[in-house]
Specification:
Length: 212
């Protein structure tokens, strides 16, 4: 399902993110401008539900405090030199292993706030960018990871300790002295891992509210 870059009504304009509707049942609205934010949010929600969304979240509403806060998205950073060493290895995803990696990603991230469902087309883009990996430690696959430049995009554990191994293995290969990532404020398990490794919150990137 395609996103709608510009959804306009008499109440304002928004960017509707619908790519996760088929897999996760979630849709997102980034409010671009609003004459009546609450009315615009309701219209965005009605459209997204008609497209199959079970839950709709919005950011950028001046009246958003009247809706239930779902999560904040935080930026966290750490100095690469301060991270512990790990023997974990990154195994690049190939055309033969992409389907397995995508299935693991979609299973692990289904319940993660603001996660994007990995469709076939997005999977091909990930493969082309060469940013996705399996994480192996002591001869077994313990996690999956994705990242580029100095940014960690995806970390998921498939075995105890797999999340830590994935962060450290990926950070070792990324560029620059500082490693950055984004995390939902309500994702307590991920936050505990990142904080234990020395990552600190540096910025609140967005606040998302459940609409309707």
């Amino acid at each position: 399902m395609k996103d709608i870059p510009l959804f306009t009504t008499e109440y304002g304009a928004a960017n509707l993110i619908l790519g996760s509707v088929p897999g996760f049942g979630t849709a997102y609205a980034r409010i671009l401008s609003a004459r009546d934010g609450n009315a615009l949010a309701r219209e965005c929600a009605q459209f997204c539900r008609a497209a199959g969304a079970e839950a709709v979240y919005a950011t950028g509403l001046p009246e958003s405090e009247s809706w239930p806060l779902s999560t904040e998205i935080w930026r966290m950073t750490a100095q690469k030199a301060s991270l512990p060493q790990s023997q974990a290895e990154l195994i690049p995803v190939t055309a033969e292993t992409l389907e397995e990696w995508a299935a693991l990603y979609n299973r692990k991230f289904r319940a993660v706030p603001n996660a994007v469902w990995l469709s076939s087309s997005l999977g091909q883009a990930v493969l082309k960018a060469r940013e996705a990996f399996f994480v192996r430690l002591s001869g077994r696959t313990v996690g999956i990871a994705k990242g580029a430049e100095n940014q960690i995009h995806v970390v998921a554990a498939l075995a105890p300790g797999g999340g830590r191994a994935a962060v450290l293995a990926l950070a070792r290969e990324l560029e620059g002295p500082e490693i950055a990532l984004e995390v939902a404020s309500v994702n307590g398990k991920a936050l505990a891992l990142y904080q234990s490794l020395g990552f600190q919150q540096t910025e609140t990137l967005s606040k998302w509210y459940k609409i309707g």
